[in-house]
Amino acid sequence: MKIAVKDIKGNDTGRSVDLPKGVFVIEPNNHAIYLDVKQYLANQRQGTHKAKEKAEITGSTRKIKKQKGTGTARAGSIKSGVFRGGGRFFGPRPRNYGFKLNKNTKRLARKSALSLKASEKAIMVVEDFNLNAPRTQDFRAILTALNIADKKSLFVTADVNKNVYLSSRNLTNSKVIVNSELNTYAIMNTNALVLCESAIAGIETNLSK
Questions:
Q1: Which domain-ending residue is among 96, 113, 134?
Q2: Total domains in the fold of the chain
Q3: Domain range spanning residue 163?
Q4: What is the CATH number of the domain that holds 173?
Q5: What is the pLDDT of residues 88-124, one digit of tens each?
Q6: Where are the alpha helices (DSSP H) in the chain?
Q7: Main-chain phi, psi angles of 110, to 5 degrees
Q8: Residue 34 Cα distances to 28, 66, 158, angstroms
Q9: With contact defined as beta carbons under 8 Å apart, do 136 and 171 qualify?
Q10: Are 119 and 21 in contact (CB under 8 A)?
Q11: Residue 32 shares a structural domain with residue 90
Q12: Mean pLDDT of 142-164
C-alpha cells in the first residue's frame, strides 16, 4: 500500500512509501481490538476505592434494644448498615482490574487497528522533522499546514524527540509518542494518524516479533 510523503508544511515531497501489507492491510479482527482496548482502560484504573464495612466502624457493640416485643426488626449493633453511620453492605474494596491478554492477540489488535485507519484513509506520512525549541505555536502551525488542526491527531516518531513532545504537550487534541509505545487504544482514539517516515520500519519490526 503506497502513500505519499509530505513535509511539515503540507507540501508533497514527490516521494512515497510502501506501508507493509502484513501490518496495514489485513482483515481487521474487531474482537481482538475490543479486548486490547478493554485491557488498556482496565490498567488505567487505580482500584483504590474503599468503603468501611460493619467490622471497621468505630462504635459500641452493645445490643441497642431487646430482641422481642418492640414490634420492629431485631437489631444487635449500632454499626449495622441499616442505621445511619453504620458500615456499608458489600462495599467496594481495593482491587486490581488488570487481566492477562495473549501477546499474539495484542499484536493482532494493533495490526487490525492500523488496517482500519488505513482503510479509512486516516493515515498520513510526513518526513522526519525536528524543532529547534519547544514551542507550542510551532507545532500548531504544523497541524494547520497538514489540515488536521481541528482533528484529534497522533504523531508517531521513530525516536524520542523532546522538543516535538514538549511542543505538543499543551494541546488537548494532539499527542506525540514513540513507535514502541504505539497501542490499540491510542490508534483507535484518533482521527488522524501521522507517521514519521522513519517510524514505519520500527512499527513493522515491533509487530512482526
A1: 96
A2: 2
A3: 2-45+99-206
A4: 3.40.1370.10
A5: 999 999 999 999 999 999 999 999 999 999 999 999 9
A6: 21-24, 30-44, 103-119, 136-145, 162-168, 184-188, 199-206
A7: -70, -40
A8: 11, 56, 27
A9: yes
A10: no
A11: no
A12: 92
* Neighbour tally for 93: CB within 10 Å: 10
Same domain, 113 and 26: yes
Find cell 492500523 and name the residue. Answer: 114
Give per-residue pLDDT as tens, 41-62: 999 999 999 999 999 999 888 9
End-to-end distance of the chain based on CA atoms, in angstroms?
21
Grid coordinates representing 24? 496495514
Cα gap 161→169, rounded to integer Å: 12
pTM: 0.84
Residue written as grid cell 504523531: 155
How many residues are present in the chain? 209
Q: Over the chain, what is the mean pLDDT?
A: 93
